[in-house]
Backbone:
């Protein structure tokens, strides 16, 4: 998975959850997926449409039995659903899932398996603003998914950020090669 695809995928809060649920065998109809995700109808519908527009899901063609799946994963969707399932499995608690659903959490963790400077993270995520990156780094640091170290040997001193604990698990689940 490349970083631009990851950024697009995580731009909707429930996209990873929907893919993970489909990978884990939840019925591929809108009602069971909505119930299992615990999302609002509006946010769920927006994420579902987003996944269709990315070409990861498609509506099942034709009419038939009422239990026939409404949606199915495309070949790319199958690959990304496996990754989404590994990401969601790394974060079992609901309060942590809310952090995972934030726009930039997963892309930032994907690029920080090793120590990175602010400018290095920003260059890997060209569409992120300085403010969004700063806020996201602070939230990830507070949750202890990201560590911040100050390198005082350089002039001027600068911080580096590295994924820790669950953040590192998520980074490894993504398996992004930079």
Residues:
């Amino acid at each position: 998975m490349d970083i631009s695809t990851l950024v697009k995928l995580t731009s909707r809060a429930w996209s990873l959850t929907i893919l993970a649920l489909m990978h884990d065998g939840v019925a591929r109809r809108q009602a069971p997926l909505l119930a299992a995700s615990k999302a609002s109808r509006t946010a769920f519908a927006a994420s579902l449409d987003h996944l269709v527009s990315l070409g990861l899901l498609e509506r099942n063609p034709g009419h038939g039995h009422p239990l026939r799946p409404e949606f199915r994963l495309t070949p790319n969707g199958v690959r990304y659903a496996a990754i989404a399932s590994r990401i969601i499995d790394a974060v079992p608690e609901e309060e942590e899932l809310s952090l995972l659903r934030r726009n930039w959490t997963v892309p930032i963790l994907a690029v920080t398996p090793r120590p990175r400077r602010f400018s290095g993270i920003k260059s890997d995520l060209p569409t992120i603003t300085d403010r969004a990156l700063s806020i996201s780094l602070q939230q990830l640091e507070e949750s202890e998914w990201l560590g911040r170290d100050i390198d005082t040997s350089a002039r001027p001193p600068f911080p580096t950020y590295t994924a820790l604990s669950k953040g590192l698990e998520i980074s490894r689940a993504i398996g992004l090669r930079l």
Remarks:
- The CA atoms of residues 112 and 162 lie 5 Å apart.
- The domain at 3-89 is CATH 1.10.10.10 (Arc Repressor Mutant, subunit A).
